[in-house]
Amino acid sequence: MTNVAVLTDSTASIPEEILTNLHIRTVAYYIHRGGEVLRDLVTIQREDFLRWLMTAHFLPTTASPGPGDYMEAYQELAEEGAQEIVSIHMTSDASGAYQAATIAQTMMKEEAPDIKIEVIDTRNAALCQGWMVIEAARAALAGSRLDEIAGKVKRMIPLSHMIQTADTLKYLYMGGRIGKAQSLLGSMLNIKPLIGIENGVIVPLGKAHSRLQAYSMMADMVAEAIGRSKAKIAYVHAGARREVEKLKDLVESKVEVAESIFAELSPALAVHTGPGMAGLCYYLIEA
Fold it and tell me: At what angle do helices 67-79 and 97-111 cross, to 10 degrees?
């Protein structure tokens, strides 16, 4: 156990090997599929869920963990010896996780006042949130204090950006997560929409006529944002590893990448993107 324990949600979609190596604790989201209640990456895994989703006649609903789920996780970390916890969550505009974790923080303060907990709203999702968690865990393993780790995460928030594309926005629309990208719904068939997150809300970034054009536009956007600086990039997908490999080649021919990883969305996020989503989450490295 490090001086500071790092906790996040399953929707951060961090690869399992990284979670294990960096001692990151996750709390699972809920997926309601008809009469079933599934736990994200616990009772349902990526491949099985995407296979089902491709033939589904209805869209499941998702729910963030409740205060009790976070309270239990905080208690377990305290029992394992943690005196300080940084708790890092998806944008509060799209999920109740941050609010639930804040309630659990208050509950924990009453039960165990010596345990310090910092709860952070990343204003982002998926591997943008995931990068913040990864860097927090690395800092914790290096011996950084809670305030130093929280400060690092908060500095990363405006530097972290997501761009993704898919063959359709129907999953985002049906799931009520379309945000400001609703304007893209009326586009003609065979248009590949590009979307991102700004200040916690999904926004449209452009349209392409093919996947390859969409990837080229993404690479140009990243290159313009990064300039001569360096970035860390996660190539993120939902059952589309070959697609993000194409994206990686285009991006890394234009920008200097300090570190890159491949990551597949958890089922609770894939509900909203649908199968085939490909994109990236990157952050500009501080000078």
Answer: 50
Give Cα 255 distance to the centre of its chain: 23
Instruction: State the residue for tokens 């570190």.
Output: 259
Helix (H) or strand (E) holding 258: strand 256-264
Find the length of the chain: 287
Structure confidence by residue, pLDDT tens digits, 181-221:
444 444 445 678 898 999 898 888 998 988 999 999 999 99
Nearest to 3 by CA among 143, 98, 121: 143
User: What domain range is 154 assigned to?
Assistant: 4-158
Pairing label, strands 192-198, 201-208: antiparallel
* Mean of pLDDT values over 221-245: 95
Residue 175 has pLDDT above 70, yes or no: no
Is-contact 95 27, C-beta < 8 A?
Answer: no
Task: Kindly list the distances between the CA atom of residue 183 and the CA atoms of 37, 164, 195, 229, 245, in Å, as whole numbers in the listed order.
Answer: 33, 16, 11, 33, 29
259: which 2 tokens?
């570190």
Single pTM value for the model? 0.92
Mean pLDDT on 157-177: 74
- Amino acid at residue number 5: A
Does 66 share its domain with 167? no
Q: Do 176 and 145 share a structural domain?
A: no
Are 154 and 264 in the same domain? no
Please report, for the domain that includes residue 19, its CATH number.
Answer: 3.40.50.10170
DSSP 8-state code for residue 44: B
54, amino acid identity: M
> DSSP assignment of 223-283, as one string?
HHHHTTSEEEEEEEESS-HHHHHHHHHHHTTTSEEEEEEEEE--HHHHHHH-TT-EEEEEE
Q: Is 72 helix (H, G, I), strand (E, B) or coil?
A: helix
Assign 229 to helix, strand or coil: coil
Q: What is the pLDDT of residue 228?
A: 87
Within 13 Å of residue 39, how many CA atoms lie on the same side as its CB? 9
